[in-house]
Amino acid sequence: xTGVTQSPTxxxxxxxxxxxxxxxxxxxxxxxxxxxxxxxxxxxxxxxYYREEENGRGNFPPxxxxxxxxxxxxxxxxxxxxxDDSALYLCASSNGQGINTGELFFGExxxxxxx
Amino acid sequence: xxxxxxxxxEMSVQEAETVTLSCTxxxxxxxYYLFWYKQPxxxxxxxxxxxxxxxxxxxxxNRFSVNFQKAAxxxxxxxxxxxxxxxxxxxxxxxxxxxxxQFYFGTGTSLTVxx
Lengths: 115, 115
Description:
heterodimer, A: 11 strands, globular, B: mainly beta, 0% helix
């Protein structure tokens, strides 16, 4: 059983650029959620995908968008990067939507630095 | 809106001793779940323990136990027989029932186990 993997692990962008982060969910998991963890803060929910559809979104602007693919892997896209977007971006997967065992399996994250 | 508060940014404990991490939350929901997640320096978040709000009995997982006080909206984590591997950031998290994987996290408590 493979765990949640994310790429890239680190990247540096400049303000105004666009970035794509990738996540492969744990084997058998069909739900992926994305979190932003700023330095010294707890993770904040960005959005969730279930069976290729977004079915929950936190308080993030539309320039944060995502995709989920038929194999349940996912992408997080951020357009028009701002300095405050610098953070660790965590992907988490689980099996089932609204099935509340509540256990999320997290990847190690992608560290984004915006200069 | 849901909020989770962890008022102890940093704590330390001697190896083999017991430590308690505090968490309070605010919600108008009646059905929800509470969690403690551990984030070691490797960054991967790991579930430590989970509590369903409808259960009066406090959850336990080996050396980890919680004190869940629903009326007071308090959810503390007790770690017994602390081990060096327990050194990590600990996040308290809240999830409404039937919202998939939208978690609300606190700001975390950095725990250091001293040999």
